[in-house]
Design goal:
The structure holds 2 protein chains of 2 kinds.
Chain A: H1 15-41, H2 48-66, H3 68-79, H4 86-95, H5 104-115, H6 119-122, E1 125-126, E2 132-133, E3 137-144, E4 147-154, H7 158-177, H8 181-198, H9 201-215, E5 221-223, E6 235-239, H10 246-251, H11 256-277, E7 279-281, E8 289-292, E9 298-301, E10 307-309, H12 312-321, H13 324-328, H14 330-339, H15 349-366, E11 374-376, H16 380-395, H17 397-401, H18 411-428, E12 431-433
Chain B: H1 3-17, H2 24-30, H3 35-41, H4 45-66, H5 75-92, H6 94-105, H7 117-136, H8 150-167, H9 174-191, H10 195-208
The chains are: A alpha+beta, B mainly alpha.
């Protein structure tokens, strides 16, 4: 996986320590703005990009030290490249790969707490140095009865601290993104629920087993078997899947056929979850998939910590939006968007027109893969158009004035799923049968 | 009369009554033995307390060293391993640990309680050993004169950890884990080569080249 990282030397776990860390970030971000405006006042050139870069670095510096829930927020923000300024996105994307692991004795202690045994008694072999850092835990390599196992260990105290973490990340994040707390509340609640679910390894174990059983028939997918007797509230043991993460896999120059087969498996996996299970693995970032060239391309799915259940009414409205006939019909589009809480009855007519216009453009673009029997996600023009649209929307003065977020809270994770899925398929350069 | 039996009887009494027996005679009478047999092993009840604490330390060191990776640990990790193991043992004997600490701490605040004397000796020896190993691997900076005082300083850290554990009310004493991780990290940042060494080196250079 990634190169060996330095063991974690400090873990700010107490609330005071975390708060101090955040206060520092707030302060530094503030200082960056002061520098920016001071430079401007004396007439020097201080590009806004520099400012974003400086702020993002401060935030990331704090975030990677914070771990846990905050890192998750960082990851989610990074997924939505088209919403955040590029500099933030780049800094946050780092968070998806690299965070330093915990010290050895603390790992041993976590096992003693859970099983009354050290990992070396529990497994035939156990590597004390983590192979990979996950956002709320780290992954160790172990062997038992000749089987290679992945053992995920959660950082102690994560579950307890998520709520207070979110309380502290809110003011900073809201200010940096320029949002208002009251209107954000339903969305933040949704995120908080998912985050708390993610700390529950027993739940993840159950869901992982369920989804693997239900999706087992989809070709070229590979799921890890979970081992309940070797798992506990903070420890999760599963098979060590073969394969590489996307970046490393792409470095091996896989053929187009392999890419297509992997992309197809990924698409089919999501289509089945979305349309049949109505329950979806809502964390499609590159760290959660392992790609392997055997059998013409096999896709390993990891981490069922973040699973979104899709309510039936939302499902119907959402997929109705993707119908080309609806996009052409103003009245139906308005009606659907009103039901989805994107448009409000008390909106001024000009504002409503603006929303309708921009949403039609974005929906046409986002729904394009659904409208064709075969879609080439490798076409750079398509992803560029998606990102350019995001930039255009950011530039639209009327939209920028609209500070409050809109739409059903279920959009957050469904959007995140599709943004992540599209980004993965684009990076993979896959041609997929989408219809 | 076995030494171990006397110790267990004393421990049992303390745990049930929340105070030491009124007299040696009373305890030994219950065991069906004479007072003289007690003095073959211990002079006072406090001697038993000292031994129980020393046992905690010995057990923690032995059990921590049983870990297959022990030999691969650096000094920092060895100390962490010791603390976490000690904490496990204290968790199983928390009532006694709290009682004995409170019983003796209240008498002399800020000082090392007498009952921890033997425990302290074992601990300081252990710290001196791992620091010596640490100097060999350059994890710990060599600072003649000062480094002899290190074990005493680490003992203050041990007292801090015990005090923190005594007051910790978090589930599974997770906050004590965090306190240990932080305290040990800080101490090894201090004993490792750091800014201070460079500063001393620089000042020495300036003084010598005058």
């Amino acid at each position: 996986m990634s190169e060996p990282t330095k063991p974690l030397v400090s873990l700010p776990t107490t609330k005071v320590a975390r708060a101090a860390r955040f206060a520092k970030t707030g302060l530094n971000v503030g200082a960056n703005y002061v520098k920016h405006y001071a430079k401007r006042a004396v007439g020097a050139e201080s590009a806004t990009a520099d400012l974003h870069q400086a702020n993002a670095e401060e935030l990331y510096g704090a975030l990677s030290e914070m771990k846990g829930s905050v890192l998750k927020v960082a990851q989610m923000l990074a997924m939505e490249k088209n919403i955040l300024p590029t500099a933030y996105a780049e800094q946050f994307a780092q968070a998806q790969y690299q965070t330093p692991p915990l010290s050895g004795p603390l790992i041993v202690k976590a096992f003693r707490d859970a099983f009354g045994k050290s990992p070396f008694e529990l497994f035939d072999t156990f590597e004390l140095n983590a192979r990979q850092a996950a956002s709320i835990g780290q992954v160790h390599f172990a062997e038992k009865d000749g089987k290679a196992l992945a053992v995920k260990v959660q950082y102690p105290g994560v579950a307890d601290s998520i709520r207070s973490d979110l309380r502290m990340v809110k003011p900073v994040a809201l200010r940096v993104l320029g949002l208002d707390e009251a209107t954000m509340r339903p969305y933040l609640e949704e995120v908080e629920t998912r985050l708390l679910e993610e700390t529950d390894y027993q739940l993840e174990l159950r869901r992982g087993q369920e989804i693997a059983a239900q999706c087992g028939h989809i070709p070229h997918l590979c799921f890890a078997t979970y081992y309940p007797t070797l798992s506990a509230a903070r420890i999760l043991t599963m098979d060590w899947l073969p394969g590489q993460h996307l970046k490393e896999f792409l470095a091996t120059n896989p053929t187009q056929t392999v890419r297509n087969q992997l992309g197809q498996a990924l698409w089919d996996f999501y289509a089945y979850q979305m349309h049949t299970l109505r329950q979806v693995h809502a964390d499609p970032h590159p760290g959660n998939f392992l790609l392997d060239a055997t059998d013409g391309g096999t896709l390993g799915v990891l981490d069922f910590g973040c699973v979104k259940n899709i309510p039936a009414d939302f499902y119907q409205l959402f997929f109705a939006l993707l119908d080309p006939a609806v996009l052409a019909d103003d009245a139906r589009l308005t009606d659907l968007l009103t039901q989805l809480e994107v448009l409000r009855p008390d909106d001024a007519p000009t504002l409503r027109d603006l929303y309708l216009r921009t949403l039609r453009i974005s929906l046409e673009l986002v729904a394009r893969p659904f409208h064709q029997p075969v879609f080439n996600f490798g076409d750079p023009a398509y992803m560029q158009a998606v990102y350019a649209l995001g930039d255009d929307l950011m530039q639209e003065p009327e939209l920028r004035k609209q500070r409050e977020p809109r739409g059903s809270r279920h959009f957050i994770y469904v959007n995140r799923t599709y943004v992540g899925l599209y980004a993965l398929l684009a990076e993979l350069g896959a041609e997929v049968r989408t219809a | 009369m076995e030494k171990e039996a006397i110790k267990l009887a004393y421990l049992d009494y303390v745990l049930r009554k929340g105070q030491p027996p009124v007299s040696v005679y009373k305890l030994m009478h219950k065991l069906g033995a004479t007072e003289a047999e007690f003095y073959q092993h211990y002079s006072t009840f406090a001697a038993i307390d000292r031994e129980i604490w020393a046992d905690f330390g010995r057990q923690a060191r032995a059990r921590a060293a049983e870990e297959p990776v022990w030999e691969q640990y650096g000094a920092r990790e060895k100390l962490l391993g010791f603390y976490y193991t000690l904490l496990e043992i204290l968790k199983q004997n928390r009532s006694y640990a709290l009682w004995s600490l409170r019983y003796s701490l209240s008498k002399m605040p800020g000082m090392t309680p007498r009952i921890l004397d033997d425990f302290r000796q074992g601990f300081e020896q252990f710290v001196a050993d791992i620091l010596r190993d640490g100097r060999r691997t350059e994890e710990v900076a060599s600072r003649p004169m000062i480094q002899e005082k290190y074990p005493r300083a680490f003992w203050q850290q041990m007292l801090f950890v015990l005090g923190f554990f005594a007051k910790d009310d978090s589930l599974g004493f997770e906050r004590t884990d965090a306190a240990i991780e932080k305290a040990v990290t800080l101490s090894f940042d201090l004993v490792g080569r750091n800014t201070l060494d460079s500063a001393v080196d620089f000042v020495r250079f300036l003084v010598q080249s005058r």
